[in-house]
Design goal:
The structure holds 2 protein chains of 2 kinds. Chain A is mainly α. Chain A is built from 12 helices and no strands. Classes of the chains: A mainly alpha, B alpha/beta. Chains A and B meet through helix 1, helix 2 and helix 5 of A and strand 1, helix 2 and helix 3 of B.
Chain lengths: ~280, ~290
């Protein structure tokens, strides 16, 4: 209650004044074990990491032609879109399922009983997600360049675009993932609850099916979520000016991409702060 | 028993917690001294887990005063967390890490942790140190939980039903470990379903039923156990006879005289902790005296 009480109750041992480890050091240490655990868990690796890569290989094999009236090939289009989906898979899906599992298997409760600051838990999650996402993008790009004639941009400006689309996109998706992790009732249902909306989102956000094939009301729904805009941003980086004609508005609309991704980053943070639960539902 | 000179590790007055209409904890008082091994017994739903979770800083209370190591656990601080060790009832986390990786990682959370390998040796997992936690047996898994609870060198250790599902040998090894920690000066608060466990480990026991402490004493004297009537039982012409008496020695002497020597199948028993416990948790509050 107060300092005097604390002093008298330091029962039987000399009071220690050793400093507690810093949040950053602990976040780093969490990131190391999170990453280790992630890559050792085959289910998680396949679900969040290998899925977009497998899809790219399959789509690349099925659709080998060029898009009508455009120098862009179908597999180039898929590579750019799947980079967006891969970033969202590594952040949104990975965190949504991972944190739901942490809540269910006792990780969160155990950590809450230690001097680990809560922020260090999130720093660890985010660093490990960043690593997975960068690795994912690198592998997808490598496949795209090696097998599907994707050319890496040489202008600095396009890499700057890549950087801000990646950072804003992953931030919004990660925060949204943290927020939705509170939805599943248990670890068992987490995969279904989190993956379902993500798969639907991929179908309506132009990842698997071009917008020209989608009804307008579906496009309007997908325009509310970050995936469509993230993919659009990545297409601007990897397909260049020749690809802009394929967009619905004949433009990549980078200003809107930035605006909506930033809005999701802010909105996601608010959603996390207001809805995050440290306890599982049966724990009350 | 324990003098007034000892310091208080846990002090609880009038603790109350409601879940809707149900009073899970209904005015509990506890005093646990530093260095003591204190067991909390009680049937499921009696309020013992709720009480312990409030002490651990996991749950908010509705009323009452609670001080744990000088701090109100409703507002836990990082330094306070560093002085308290918690062994939860069930956890299946870090399945993909090895025992050594896990204990080493958790040791990094504390300002002055114990040597991870020493802790692993103390819980008897040196041979399994390189194994993934998912490959361990239930008992080994539980010992990892204990290792994580003590690696920060806590002054106060909470153990929530630590030996549920253990075989007798594993349970005895676990008791040795708790004795060792107690000898090192760690205050231990233990909840358990096993009365022999409370008897083997605890300096004092509190029995909680219907959200209240119905008895609080040393295991040997709980609920008037030491002064309770002894039961003398023997076989008389093929029929089991028994009397309850304050003077069992006198009864046995009389029987010896009657049988002119050996009394058939003679037993003299005092009520076990279990007998006392069953009486305590089933009797209405009014009849129970502390």
């Amino acid at each position: 209650m107060n300092d005097t009480a604390t002093a008298t109750a330091t029962a039987g041992r000399t009071a220690t004044s050793h400093p507690l480890p810093s949040v950053l050091a602990l976040g780093w240490s969490r990131a190391a074990v999170e990453t280790k655990m992630f890559f050792r868990e085959r289910d998680a690796v396949i679900f969040t990491f290998a899925f977009p890569i497998i899809l790219l290989v399959i789509f690349g094999a099925i659709f080998s032609g060029r898009l009508e009236g455009s120098p862009i090939t179908v597999s180039q289009l898929y590579t750019a879109g799947l980079i967006g989906a891969g970033v969202m898979s590594a952040s949104f899906q990975n965190l949504g399922i991972g944190i739901a599992v942490d809540r269910d298997d006792g990780t969160l409760k155990r950590l809450a009983g230690t001097p680990l600051p809560r922020s260090a838990y999130f720093v660890g999650k985010i660093l490990s997600v960043l690593l997975v996402a960068l690795l994912e993008v690198a592998i997808l790009l490598a496949i795209g360049v090696a097998a599907y004639d994707l050319t890496l941009p040489t202008e600095l400006g396009r890499w700057v675009t890549f950087a801000w689309v990646f950072v804003l996109g992953i931030t919004g998706s990660a925060l949204l993932g943290i927020a939705v992790s509170s939805l599943p009732r248990s670890a068992k249902s987490a995969t279904a609850v989190i993956s379902m909306p993500f798969v639907v989102l991929q179908f309506i956000s132009g990842v698997f099916i071009p917008f020209s094939e989608l009804p307008e009301w579906l496009i309007r729904i997908s325009s509310l979520f970050p995936l469509k805009w993230m993919c659009q941003g990545f297409r601007s980086v990897f397909l260049g000016d020749a690809g802009a004609a394929l967009e619905l508005t004949k433009s990549y609309e980078l200003d809107r991409v930035a605006l909506i991704l930033a809005a999701w980053a802010v909105g996601g943070l608010v959603l996390c702060l207001t809805t995050f639960r440290w306890k599982s539902r049966r724990d009350g | 028993m324990l003098g007034y000179m000892t310091q208080t590790a846990v002090r609880v007055r009038g603790l109350t917690k409601r879940y809707g209409e149900v009073r899970a904890v209904d005015g509990i008082d506890l005093d646990i001294s530093a260095g003591e091994v204190f067991a909390i017994l009680g049937p499921n739903g009696a309020g013992k887990s709720t009480t312990v979770e409030i002490l651990e800083g996991y749950r908010k209370r509705d009323a009452g005063e609670v001080t744990v190591l000088g701090i109100d656990p409703e507002h836990p601080t990082r330094p306070w967390r560093g002085r308290v060790g918690i062994v939860l009832q069930t956890a299946n986390d870090t399945a993909e890490l090895t025992v050594r990786e896990t204990v080493r990682h958790f040791s990094g959370y504390y300002p002055q942790a114990r040597d991870p390998d020493e802790v692993i040796a103390q819980v008897g997992l040196t041979e399994q140190a390189g194994k993934r936690i998912r490959q361990l047996s239930g008992g080994q898994r539980r010992r990892v939980d204990v290792a994580l609870g003590v690696v920060g060198d806590p002054e106060l250790l909470f153990l929530d039903e630590p030996t549920t599902g253990f075989d007798p040998e594993a349970r005895h090894r676990f008791w040795d470990l708790i004795h060792e920690l107690a000898r090192e000066g760690t205050t231990i608060v233990l909840t358990t379903h096993y009365l022999e466990e409370a008897e083997a480990l605890a300096d004092r026991v509190a029995v909680i039923a219907r959200g209240r402490v119905v008895a609080q004493d040393r295991p040997a004297t709980l609920g008037g156990r030491a002064s309770a009537k002894a039961r003398v039982s023997w076989l008389d012409e093929g029929e089991r006879k028994q009397v309850e008496t304050d003077t069992p020695t006198k009864t046995v002497l009389e029987l010896t005289r009657r049988f002119d020597g050996e009394v058939p199948e003679l037993t003299v028993t005092r009520p076990s902790l279990e007998d006392i416990y069953m009486r305590l948790i089933s009797s209405p509050l009014a009849e129970v005296t502390q």
